[in-house]
Design brief:
With 301 residues, the chain is of the alpha+beta class. It has 2 domains: 142 residues, Serine Threonine Protein Phosphatase 5, Tetratricopeptide repeat (Alpha Horseshoe); 119 residues, Sandwich (Immunoglobulin-like), CATH 2.60.40. Helices cover 40% and strands 18% of the residues. It contains 9 helices and 8 strands. The strands form 2 sheets. The chain has a 5-stranded antiparallel sheet with strand order 3-2-5-6-8. Strands 4-1-7 form a 3-stranded mixed sheet. Strand 2 and strand 3 form a beta hairpin. It is elongated and about 70 Å long.
Length: 301
């Protein structure tokens, strides 16, 4: 499949799919809609002539997903499952299609398919990502982190997937009880303050736009040493950045003496700034600073 749910609100962002060797892996390059429709017709002809042809059903299922025909895709995956009942990738793809058909709801049949896929192949990338989504939505944040960590190990060659997984892990960890500001304050390795949106930019923002607040080293590195992810509707937001929000264990806020603090609002929810995003920054500031006032007052050009 081409991707996971187009999520909105405080849910983790969708992940790019790493190259798969499974029967139902995505095409290696984007196809025009007319080409996809031609593939659907070809697959439909093949399954009519050879109803036990698993490859034809896989092509039909995946091309229906590409066209956004999720109900039809789910029906094709159901047939494919009867032909390949012990294929973890097919089960994960089937769960994904059912979720897409029901606007992102993975409860019920998709949840059972995910569990079945993980029982067959604990390292399956898509099944782990979907399991993480389920855990996150159920507020089982430690479980979500564990699932994403396994998914990360299955996508080591995909830098885009790795970045998004680390963002999702950081978000889940920020919601754990251990991430409360009191613990950060006791350690002294934190920066706290409030971020607000400049009034003149308010008309550009939707409540479900993604808000990132992060700290970066002053040496020019772009990798945040702490990252908090929320919704634009949460503004103005009181924030605390500390080691619990580290994206990777070896790059922590506590390793820095000074940091740059920034905030960005993204309509697309991308980890990397794109044209039209709104942003603001401050610093360098000393680690341990409190009461920082940060305003989002600029547009990314």
């Amino acid at each position: 499949m081409l991707g996971y749910f187009l999520l909105k609100g405080p849910r983790p962002a969708p992940l790019p799919t790493p190259k798969s060797t499974g029967q139902t892996s995505s095409p290696g390059r984007a196809l025009a809609a007319s080409q996809v429709e031609a593939k659907v017709e070809e697959a439909q002809d093949r399954v009519r002539l050879q109803p036990e042809d698993a490859a034809a059903w896989a092509m039909l299922a995946n091309t229906q997903v590409m066209l956004g025909h999720y109900d039809e895709a789910a029906r094709a995956f159901e047939k494919l499952r009867t032909l390949r009942p012990k294929d973890a990738q097919i089960l994960a793809d089937y769960a994904d299609a059912l979720g897409l058909a029901s606007h992102g709801n993975l409860r019920g049949a998709p949840e059972r398919l995910i569990a079945e896929a993980l029982a067959l192949d604990p390292g399956n990338f898509k099944a782990r990502v979907l399991a993480a989504q389920l855990a996150f939505e159920g507020k089982h944040y430690e479980q979500a982190v564990q699932h994403w960590q396994v998914a990360a190990s299955a996508a080591t060659a995909n830098a885009q997937a790795q970045r998004q997984i680390q963002l999702n892990i950081a978000e889940a960890r920020s919601l754990l009880p251990s991430a409360k500001p009191a613990s950060a304050g006791a350690a002294g390795s934190f920066v706290s303050g409030q971020v607000a949106l400049a009034p003149q930019l308010a008309a550009r923002v939707q409540p479900d736009d993604v808000l990132f607040v992060f700290a970066r080293p002053t040496d020019g590195s772009r990798m945040p040493v702490a990252l908090l992810k929320r919704r634009a509707a949460d503004l103005p937001l009181d924030f605390v950045l500390d080691d619990s929000l580290a994206m990777v264990p070896q790059a922590k806020l506590s390793n820095q003496r000074q940091v740059l603090i920034a905030a960005r609002i993204s309509r697309r929810g991308d980890a990397i700034a794109t044209q039209g995003d709104l942003q603001g920054s401050a610093g360098p500031v000393e680690v341990g600073s409190t009461g920082l006032k940060l305003e989002i007052n600029d547009v990314v050009r």
